[in-house]
User: What shape does this take?
Amino acid sequence: EPVSEYVEPRVSAYRLAAHLTSAFVIYCGMLWTGLSVVMPQPPTGTIDWVRGAAKVRRFVIPVSILVGITSVSGAFVAGNDA
Assistant: This one.
């Protein structure tokens, strides 16, 4: 039986990472659009509410960046025999 290079399916890590990143971008865009439809105006609140939202935002952005980097770097090692 001839040996074929297509015995084990392989996907380029770059293509996998690009596909995963585009999926995240599309999903975030859809979520942003959906939330904009549900809540078109930002809520007005007391100064305490605004301070609380600023504290949460200070942590949400770095955590979101770390999750994104971890997810995309996982795509680069997904097909490797590590």
Notes: The two ends are 29 Å apart (CA to CA). The helical segments are 13-38, 47-77. The first helix runs from residue 13 to 38.
